[in-house]
Structure prediction request, 407 residues.
Amino acid sequence: MEMKETALKAKLHNKFGALCLKSDKPQKALSHFLQAIESAAAEGLDFLNVHYNAGNAFAQMKKFADAIPFYLFVIDNFARVESAGPLDASLNNKQAYYDSLVNLCVMYLNTGDLAQARIYCERSIRENPENNLAHVNIGNVLRQMGNREEAIDFAWNAIEARMHSSNPSFTRPVAIQGNEVDSTDETLPINVVCVKWGKRYSATYVNILLAGVARHTTLPFNFYCLTDDPTDLDPSVKVLSLEEGWTGWWGKTCLFSEKLGLKGRNTYIDLDMIITANIDDMLSHKNVPRDGFVLFRTDDFFCEQSNRGGYNSSIIQWSNQKKFAQIYEVLRGSFEVVTKYVMRFDYWLEMNIKNALFVQDLYPEKTADYVSRCKESVPEKVAIVCFPRLPKPDDFPSEWIRDVWKL
Prediction:
């Protein structure tokens, strides 16, 4: 077979494999990719793109260790191929090399080799500083290594460098202390707040949360919903407009806008939480300083075990709206840049709040992660059950949920 015919055969297998991968058929895709690799190797044809694609097929099947050699092949051979002459992008695309560096970091992260993950994240950033995913990954790697402060500093350095091109005076803000020791102001009204954005959570979620709070407190309270669509919300819900157009969890940042006028003892609760018992002590901010900032420590969540010691914002408590306005104001002035380098709203809180107080310490045994502790039943002292990932309450993964998650 002539070399050009071999190249055509390899290219066709690669093309068919890519279509299969896009159709969520990674096993079939891999068969084509391996045939392309075999055809190219038989004639000594450099075809790094197909090695990259084979790595992607293994990654899609969550066979992370099997993906590693294919990404390494691209990385180890790209310099030689590039130096041999002009690149044929259909065979050896430089983007496949850059993406192999990023993907290899993720593979090592998923196989628990944090040292190698860090090496390839840092190499990716050195060789392609514009690769935002590499910046996101290094934050995950450093947190899993226990280097949270380094992760925060790394993100701020990247944000400052990018912001200076349009705003030379930009500097990272001074972190706010969240562990103030002053007493609670019991004259302030009690506010319960939630955020509903997009289509993931319906008005039913808001109304059930309202009903759950009402059933399980003896205290007067205001119930606010920050949303882009108030359709079908209970008439007693005080609607706050979600104006910025920020998607996903970034809408939670707007909680700290002074324009909202939230004056009181504020308790934010994620919509996918279930109230099961009295929460008077939580809503009254018992033991919460007036200038303090309270949220979850990640340690008790099954889905956060690789990120122990971090922040989880499924519940947030604060009173001093002005003090914490920085969380919103800094993001408002740098949203496009920040969200290139920071993956999660919880990480943004870590970058702005130092020494936050934790729900688990202030209200021991009051909350529990569904996956870790509540599949069979709700423990006796627990008043709020958390569903940070999957399943969600409307999946009804346990029978007890039907009895309590209702209007």
Q: What stands out?
A: The CA atoms of residues 227 and 242 lie 5 Å apart. The longest helix spans residues 3-22. The two ends are 71 Å apart (CA to CA). The chain has a mean pLDDT of 94.
